[in-house]
Amino acid sequence: MTGVIGIYIFIVLGFLAKKQFKIDGKTLVILSTYYLQPFLTLWGIMLMPINKNLILAPVYYLLIVFIALIFTFTFSLILKDKKDRIIATLTPLIGNTGNLGIPVSYFFWGDFGAMVATLINLANIFFIYSFGIFFFAKGEYSFREAFKKILKIPVMWFGILALILNLKGIHFNRDIMKILQMGAFASIVTQLLIFGVYIADIRVKMEDKPLIFVTIINKFIVFTVVGFIVLTFLGVDKKYFYPILLEITTPLAISNVNLSALFNLYPSKVSFLVLVTSVLFLGIILII
């Protein structure tokens, strides 16, 4: 409980820093994305030898995402606005598996939880910058251009490198792992601060209650129920079952705001939804 509350303390610090000192969130994003997240990825994947179940964890996650997509799309049809339907369909499936998923999983299950969350976060990034971008753009953005974006993200290359080293049985000594851990923890704290900064930037008067309702249902009920059923049907070991389910329940990712702004899909609405789902996620964690 204390660890989970501590996570939100750093979010509040980011919020206060933005309010009091006008912190430049973009600078923090660049620092995190291009310099600190590679440390987090290397550390998370190299914590222990990868086995079959660890490799399957991100596969299970993506399988659940695509099955849930069918239901979120269907349920979102009740919304009249085409852009609202896109938001309610896709944003619930793009969770904050990095900023919140990794630290929360680490606090609950230690190194094992961090490793599972890191692998799932890599799968989530692939989904965001390929199918996610294509869906947001409604076919106006080619897959080639989407994958070009993936190639520019250092975390993907370091993730692939770490997977290759781990599968080949090559592991870092204790001193190197300590250095990676320092960078990983710095990345986690920076990401939480960034999240707080983004929240402080929200300026929206929300009147679209149907969009809020449908998105929340798709996020915390549809996606979660589909995940629970699929993991149960596949007979996934409880050791992996709960960490994967936790990643499924993580709130909307900040990436949703970036994508909605890029393709003119009501970024102010999406920002508000990120905030709402983050508050609800805190309640879920406290219940757990």
Textual characterization of the structure:
The chain is an all-alpha fold. Helices cover 81% and strands 0% of the residues. It has a single domain (2-281), classed as Up-down Bundle (Na+/H+ antiporter like fold), CATH 1.20.1530.20. It has helices spanning 2-21, 25-45, 52-76, 82-90, 97-137, 143-151, 154-167, 174-200, 209-233, 238-249, 255-262, 267-287.
Short description:
The chain is an all-alpha fold and 288 residues long. Helices cover 81% and strands 0% of the residues. The chain contains twelve helices and no strands.
Give the CATH architecture.
Up-down Bundle
The main sheet comes to: none
| Helix percentage | over 70%
What is the average per-residue confidence, as pLDDT, rounded to a whole number? 84
Order of helix and strand elements from N to C terminus: HHHHHHHHHHHH
The parts where pLDDT drops under 50 for at least 5 residues are: none
* Radius of gyration, whole Å: 18 Å
Count the DSSP helices.
12
Quaternary state reads single chain
Number of individual domains: 1
How would you describe the shape? globular
